[in-house]
Design brief:
The mean pLDDT is about 95. The protein is globular, with a radius of gyration of 13 Å. It has one helix and eleven strands. It has about 120 residues and is mainly β.
Amino acid sequence: QVQPVESGGGLVQAGGSLRLSCAASGHTLSGYATGWFRQAPGNEREFVAAISRSGDTTYYVDSVKGRFTISRDNAKNTVYLQMNSLKPEDTAVYYCTADSLFSRVRKFPDYWGQGTQVTVSS
């Protein structure tokens, strides 16, 4: 098993930037495809971005393309979500996820972190 742990959330003004980090306990995160989901109050969880185990393939939801970048440093056992040009509609709890399959980590991943709050003010 792997247990993702997110950090880096906070309050930022619209147009600003924020970088989320995801580490893990148990099995190393480098052994898994990983991704990010988010959930705003009253909404269902929404896929945001995913990255393959090696880091050579990424996938984004259309609403964040060109603004968000997912990356990983397997030597540090860490996955990042760089968020630029943030908008109020990006406000949500962001969850780091992991799965053995890249295709599945984008839809229904096996492992979830506890979430970190991102708030974008106007």
